[in-house]
Amino acid sequence: MRYLGLIVLLLALAILSLSAGRTWLAPSALAQALLDPEGAGRMIWNLRLPRLLVGMIAGAGFGLSGLVFQTLLRNPLASPDVIGVTQVSAFGAVVGLFLGAPVVLCAWAGGLAAVAALGWLAAHPRQGIETRAVVLQGLALAIFAAAGTEALILRMGDSSAGMAMTWLSGTLNGAGWSEIQRGLLFAPLLLPLLLSGRVLDRLELGDDLARALGLRVGLLRAGLGLVAALVAAGSVALCGPMSFVALAAGPVARVVAGGRPSPFAAMLTGAAFVTLADVLARAMAPTALLPTGLYTALIGAPVLILTVRRMARN
Fold first, then answer.
1. HEC states along 61-93?
2. Is the pLDDT of residue 97 over 90?
3. Does the pLDDT value for residue 85 go beyond 80?
4. Which of 29, 83, 155, 171 could join 291 via S-S bond, C-beta 3.0 to 4.6 A?
5. Helix 263-284 to helix 177-194 angle, to the nearest 10 degrees?
6. Bridge partners, residue 128, by sequence
7. pLDDT per position as a tens digit, 230-258
8. pTM reported for the whole predicted model
9. 113-123, pLDDT tens digit by residue?
10. What is the distance between the alpha carbons of residues 277 and 244, in angstroms, rounded to a whole number?
11. Positive or negative torsion for Cα 16, 18, 19, 20
């Protein structure tokens, strides 16, 4: 029933997103526009619909990758935007913009490099990878990557630097069907994460018990971590690093799923989070073209505060 509520919420936000903008459309006008893509519905089909779909794809990716990293590391703070995966992916994407190379491939390279660096930095000679060390080393990695990105932007021309700065704030402005085609490149990577619910459930029991249940713990952690990094990097390449989406989607999805790690709920939550933020961006200032990432930060920051308070109490 809770999943159904989440689906209904996402559909309601999608309808609201198609209606919102400089010109608000009534439900009847929206239905008429959707049925007339070459006439009255041109604005919907060319601007609002691709913007909605890009936001939902990116949000689903951020939500899924956030839940997987948080579960693998057994830490609600260990989302890709906290442990540096998002920032290094963004650095890779900016390198791609600077060199004229494919942005998606460069973002993927950044995401994989971040996971490799974290595995090396947080490795303990006897205890393996220490999850708390991953978060702390990830914070340092995120700061280092952000500094590198700023240094690179300073070497760009004015117009390219302005575009890069806007993109880094997390924006859906200008999103079109070409971005959806880019999103379809990493959409197949969502499938293994969506099917990983039972594995994540068992990994939460601890490595020893998971091994006793027949899981190849090391292989599964490495494989799921790499796929989650690719999904997070692909989402970054679509619309920039949307702050707090990956961090907030996991805990909310657990509430929906009764405390269990549910990839399906995390995917829906991430998509709904970005869609809600984009509706707010256009409703609050329809002519200002404010970045959607500004509103994901405004919504997600309280979730971070509540998460830290909950960890402190426990």
1. HHHHHHHHHHHHCCCCCCCCCCCCHHHHHHHHH
2. no
3. yes
4. 171
5. 150
6. 124
7. 999 999 999 888 888 999 898 889 888 88
8. 0.91
9. 999 998 888 87
10. 11
11. positive
